[in-house]
Amino acid sequence: MPKPAPSPARAPEEVDMFTYYLGLGFRSLRRNPVLTILMVLTLSVGVAASMTTLTLLHGMSGNPIPGKSDRLFVPLLDNGPGEELDGSGEPPRQVSHTDAVNLWDQAKGALQTPLYGIGPAIDSGRADLPPFFSSGVAVGRDFFAMFDVPFLHGQAWSADDDRRGAAVVVIGRELSERVFGAGVNAVGQTIRISDVDYQVIGVVDTWNPVPKFYRLIGNSSFSESEDVYMPFRTAVNRELQVNGSIDCSSESGPGFQGLVASECVWIQYWVELESASKRQEYADYLNAYINEQKALGRYTRPVNFRLYDVMEWLDFNEVVSDDTRTSTWLAFAFLLVCLVNTVGLLLAKFSARPGEIGVRRALGATRRDVFTQYLTEAGVIGLVGAGVGLGLTFGALAYIRALDESIALVTRIDGAMLGTAVALSIAASLLAGLLPTWRACQVVPALQLKSQ
Question: Residues in domain ABC3 transporter permease C-terminal (predicted)?
Answer without folding.
Answer: 331-442
